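Internal ticket - ligand job 502, iron/sulfur cluster:
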Amino acid sequence: MKVNTENCIGCGFCARDCPVDAVSLVKKKAVINDHWCTHCGVCLRVCESEAILAGEDRPRDSIECDACPIKCWINDGQVGACHRYRNEDGHLVRLTPLHSFEDVLQTVGPEPREVIRRPVTTAIGSGTTYPDCKPAPHIVRENRQGVDVVTVVTEVPLSYSSIIVKVDTDIPLGREGDRIYVGKREVGMVETEQYGSKMLHIGGVNRLTGKNGFIVARTVTEIANRKPVKLKIENGPRLVVRVGGPPVIDGEAGAKMRVGCGSATMGLFAPLLVEAADEVIILDSHITGQMSRHVAGQYARAKPTGILLKFDESTPGRYFGDHGGGWGGTSIIDPIDIIGSVDAKIAWNGMTVLITETTGQNGKLYEWGADHQFKEIPMSDKARLALEAISNSCEPSRVSAIYIAGAGGSARAGVTKFPIKLTRAVHAAKAQLTVGGSPGYVLPGGGITFMVDVERVKEGSFYWTPTPATICPLEYTMELKDYEEMGGHVEAMKPFKARKPR
Ligand code: SF4
Ligand code: SF4
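stdout (structure tokens):
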């Protein structure tokens, strides 16, 4: 990397973002330490003044790392941009040794003992005692493998509660931060999307205690109980979500979840794709992949085609996409429009280009002609085979949901006279929290804020009350000695008698 000092305005963005501190500012001009520089290209991307120049040859004593698409050039004694690999006398060495589970045991922390992993009974159908300082409705005891175990259960009303709905689809569901409505009432917002999924957050204490609280509580509960719920997203579609089924987006049922991003799809199917066409482009709003420039394509012996795409290239053959109503959730409506330029000195007459999405559901094949234009041609058998391979590897588009709530407040009084001791026991894995028998994940830090997959809780077990709050079946299971130590309501404890099945 070189600096064109005439263009450099001394803003320091390159020095701030260089991962190996190879850039410094001298007299308000960037200066690059060539020996430290890994040629990662970060400075090139952050410089807004076009003052960084790339393109020199790799230093003779450097090693090209192939652990990621950046392909750092690492000089002797130096580390790569990720700080994991170092060039030690001409060998790339992973700096952190491979860790055994024992090495990390202390960090991972304790697990609950086998005897307390399952509740003696669930809280489904248990009812609620009010006020909270009364003992919980059922405190039951059982001897397991010689150990006395206690489970305390309540159907607990929780005003700090919400549901995170995961919709496995590439179809845009609005922008992050967009409001979500039931009818005209705001019930949630669109969250940061996850890999192949859009995330909707419905509920939360501020909405539950706001003017739309009843409909918010009802919506969270209905989704948790796997009922179909109609939603409208501010800058997005109308949709119907039902946990366990496909989303219905503007009247159409979602079909497939993508197999991976455009780059991952390239990595998965490059040997097939290289047979399907001379160039393959996989449109994706996250990372759009281009075979001939992608490492996987080159590994599968794809030839250069001279094609460059319109999107910004992150690393060779991996382009940051955009969002819209077109192919792969991008703004590209006519797929051929993704091609930004073709170097006619490299492209050849009859060169074929297959454009598809990460689900392989749509595909078009084009041919580059003597007139230097692309024309669409019928899909070949090999191209169809490749699209089918992608499509058949996709999971169905589906809705799932995580209920999240805080039970670290007054509800603890039904369990123990010393609520802080229950919180500590939960975090120390001495008291196991379950929801309808399903293990909850307790968030770190203070309080008892937990999450549970609603599909692991018996259907119809969530309720709501006009306080407003959602009601969740919650169990704490622990050894009797720990329950006594925390000041539990042992006077209300009873041996567990299983009810005869109806
Ligand atoms: S290419 Fe990477 S390592 Fe080299 S100076 Fe730029 S940011 Fe630093
Ligand atoms: S980011 Fe560009 S303009 Fe800013 S200091 Fe670095 S080279 Fe100069």
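Auto-summary: Residues 116-160+400-495 form one domain. The pocket of iron/sulfur cluster (ligand 2) is lined by residues 3, 8-14, 30, 46-47, 49, 51-52 (CB under 6 Å).
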